[in-house]
Amino acid sequence: MKLVLNKRDAKGKNKVDKLRVKGEVPGVLYSKGEEAKLVSGLEKDLLKVFSDEGFSNIFEIEVDGETVSVLFKEVQMHHIKNAMVHFDLFEVDMNTELTVAVPVVLEGREEVKVQPSSLIQVLNEVEVTCLPKYLPSEAIVNVVEMQIGDVKTVADLDIYGDENIKIDIDAEETVATLVEPTEEKEPEEGEEEVSAEVPTVSETEEDAE
């Protein structure tokens, strides 16, 4: 899906509010060596693209008939409603390396064979540097066969070892670990005795009489 945006000269709260009344969201397009451009787009289209692409997928936009490749740089959402308030994009030079934070996905986390167990994800994203055409949308590690005490590290990610992608973090950094589930602490004997001596409402009322 190509996202169609409009150039805007709307600065100030009143003008931005008028955009939002029309179902549009204000944004900024950044391009290296150029002045930032004020843009806007339909919120429903922006939400769909952001849901599909996130921060680590390159997609195309059209502004005044010109098509460029971009990434989301920042997205501001309303703190209560599922509404986009503002967005920033930056234009991608397909011939220049870029550094992007890529989400870490624990594949098979709902199918871990050792049960009961508790799977703890330590690393939620990794920064990678590469040419845009090699940019992964995510970094995956399979956890289905993990045993209690096992640790998955950056070296276990599917993108590790790809000569076209540099991972900007130590290979031994922990990604996830499988541990025994934490048991709820049983109340101590003294605590049980104290709680048993607390009078009920009816007992209190009888004493008062």
UniProtKB/TrEMBL annotation:
Gene3D superfamilies named in the record: Ribosomal protein L25, beta domain, Ribosomal Protein L25, Chain P
Name of the protein described by the UniProt record: Large ribosomal subunit protein bL25
NCBIfam families per record: bL25_bact_ctc
Origin species: Peptoniphilus porci
Gene expressing this chain: rplY
One Pfam family from the record: Ribosomal_L25p
Molecular functions per Gene Ontology: 5S rRNA binding; structural constituent of ribosome
Functional note: This is one of the proteins that binds to the 5S RNA in the ribosome where it forms part of the central protuberance.
Subunit-level organization: Part of the 50S ribosomal subunit; part of the 5S rRNA/L5/L18/L25 subcomplex. Contacts the 5S rRNA. Binds to the 5S rRNA independently of L5 and L18.
Highest taxon of the lineage: Bacteria
